[in-house]
Design brief:
Number of domains: 2
Radius of gyration: 28 Å
Number of helices: 3
Number of strands: 11
Protein name: DUF3592 domain-containing protein
Keywords: Membrane, Plasmid, Transmembrane, Transmembrane helix
Strand content: 35-45%
Distance between the termini: 20 Å
Length: about 230
């Protein structure tokens, strides 16, 4: 299970970073065009939509997921027809005239003003979601490795349960419980908290004032694992 979580964590993290990179690259490209490109007017000749089934339909559909926009325009006396635009917005319609930006060195690869922000928002937003999910998976995997390391090399101390509270995490409708405890040594009190516990069996019979084992790093008590 942990190997699967680790695999998905790395996949999601790499995918998220890649998507953020794509959005950033698109934003940079559009920024360069806005600084050096030339403005022109184009006419939308077709909008092709992609559905989940992978089929294509001319014109637009509310159920589509992806859109390819094709335009015609003139640049320096030359006509460009059936050119695929790299961006789609819901305001685009067949026959509508739109403003485009043209790179003089690549006039057949136009874009629209503001496409960089749009692409950065879309790709970056999706990438951020994957990055967060991947980070959560990897955090769990690395935390579990840290717990196993502490159980092998750490020092076991006996702490006293001071409270059992609800966490902000819910799993399958079950609210995780946090076990708060403390350990006193050399007139100093150390406070510990467990990870959210969802197994009611693990908490059965455990009450405030009971003892519980905590594994700590002898050199740094802030690194610990409450055994439940």
């Amino acid at each position: 299970m942990k190997k699967i979580l680790s695999l998905f964590g790395w996949i999601f993290l790499l995918l998220g970073v890649t998507l953020i990179g794509i959005g950033s690259l698109a934003y940079w490209r559009t920024s360069q065009l806005q600084a050096k490109g030339e403005s022109a007017t184009a006419r939308i000749t077709d909008i092709v939509t992609y559905h989940e089934s992978g089929n294509r339909y001319s014109h637009h559909s509310q159920d589509s997921r992806h859109h390819d926009v094709y335009i015609d325009y003139r640049y320096h006396g030359q006509r460009y027809t059936d050119i695929r635009l790299d961006t789609y917005t819901s305001s685009m319609q067949i026959g509508k005239k739109i403003k485009i930006l043209i790179n003089p060195q690549a006039p057949a690869n136009p874009t629209i003003p503001g496409a960089g922000i749009l692409n950065l928002t879309i790709w970056g937003g999706i990438g951020l979601v994957f990055t967060i999910l991947g980070s959560i998976f990897l955090k769990y995997v690395f935390a579990d490795r840290g717990r196993r390391r502490l159980k092998k090399t750490g020092r076991q101390v006996t702490a006293i349960v001071s409270a059992i509270t609800d966490s902000h995490v819910t799993l399958n409708g079950v609210v995780g419980k946090i076990i708060e405890c403390y350990y006193e040594e050399a007139d100093e009190r150390y406070h510990f908290e467990s990870a959210p516990v969802f197994n009611s069996t693990a908490l059965h019979g455990l009450n405030v004032g009971d003892t519980i084992y905590v594994y700590v790093d002898p050199n740094n008590y802030s690194h610990y694992y409450v055994e439940v």
